[in-house]
Specification:
The structure holds 2 protein chains of 2 kinds. Chain A is of the alpha/beta class. Chain A has one domain: STAS domain (Transcription Regulator spoIIAA), CATH 3.30.750. Chain A contains 5 helices and 6 strands; from the N terminus they run E-E-E-H-E-H-E-H-H-E-H. Chain A has a 6-stranded mixed beta sheet, sandwiched between helices. Chain A is globular and about 30 Å long. By secondary structure, chain B is α+β, with helices and mostly antiparallel strands. Chain B has one domain: Heat Shock Protein 90 (2-Layer Sandwich). Chain B has 4 helices and 5 strands. Chain B has a 5-stranded antiparallel beta sheet, covered by helices on one side. In chain B, a hairpin with a 7-residue loop joins strand 4 and strand 5. The chains are: A alpha/beta, B alpha+beta. Chains A and B meet through helix 2 and helix 3 of A and helix 1, helix 2, helix 3 and helix 4 of B.
Chain lengths: 117, 144
């Protein structure tokens, strides 16, 4: 497991990179998330938002930017443990309508199973 | 015989223009909403909207100058909570809150600028009082 900044960890299980955000997805964490993504080497990326009880539009915009860039490189993304705060932004911005192939599941185990199937 | 109206309950918090301090405000808003027994979904929406408004005040209103303060007043009425977020003045907060074109943003890979649109989506009423050189006050109201 690799720590990126104060709030992000990168872990790899099989061919899946798990990005875990351990704080609120505010300004500083958004920058760390961008840095963390530069180190992803796998095609499948699972983003664990379980610790993100507070988010901002910038945080979610950064996450969306990474997903869009990654998909152009044939990466697949899955979000898990998505908090109500994150879902409020995802719903308000209709993100699922514009980002094809993005999966949202309840738990990390479900995300890993999704990529493994 | 007149019916005595209950007084509004009000608290004020001042934060420096440093990212992260908006979370002090969202925690306070959450606590107030809990005291007033607001539904959880409404509370989450108000907290998110207040965070966005505070970030706008820190970034655009006060240009991230830590010596400039953001003053937030949370006011409880019988069936509503209002949060007034005021910057120090002299900044540039765009009062427009039109829906960003997310499809285009994705195409040109310039994703963001959702703040005021989100604020407008999340709460029942948004008022922005802004004049050149003067403090901008963003007032957000959510009804029970």
């Amino acid at each position: 497991m690799k720590q990126i900044g104060e709030n992000i960890t990168l872990d790899q299980k099989d061919n899946i990179t798990i990005i875990s955000i351990s704080n609120n997805l505010g300004y500083d964490t958004a920058d760390e998330l961008r840095s963390a993504y530069q180190e992803v080497e796998t095609d499948d990326v699972l983003v664990d938002l379980g610790q993100v009880s507070i988010t901002t539009s910038r945080g979610m915009a950064t996450l969306l930017s990474i997903i869009v860039e990654g998909q152009e490189e044939a990466r697949q993304f899955c979000l898990c443990n998505v908090s109500e705060a994150c879902m409020l932004i995802i719903d308000a911005m209709n993100i699922m309508e514009y980002v094809e192939g993005l999966e949202i599941v309840d738990s990390m185990e479900e995300g890993i199973a999704l990529f493994s199937s | 015989m007149s019916t005595k109206q209950p007084l509004a309950e009000e608290i004020s918090i001042t934060i420096p223009s440093v990212f992260g301090y908006e979370e002090v405000i969202t925690e306070a808003v959450g606590s107030v909403a809990k005291i007033k027994k607001f539904p959880l979904e409404k509370t989450s929406k108000l907290k998110l909207a207040v965070a966005e408004a505070c970030i706008n005040s820190i970034e655009h209103g006060n240009q991230k100058d830590p010596d400039k303060k953001v003053v937030v007043t949370i006011r409880c009425e019988a069936d509503s909570i209002t949060a007034c977020i005021q910057d120090a003045g002299g900044g540039n907060i765009d009062p427009q809150h039109k829906m960003p074109d997310l499809k285009e943003q994705i195409q040109v890979k310039e994703i963001g600028g959702w703040g005021m649109f989100l604020v407008n989506e999340l709460v029942d009423k948004v008022e922005i009082d802004s004049a050149p050189g003067q403090p901008t006050t963003t007032t957000l109201t959510i009804n029970q």
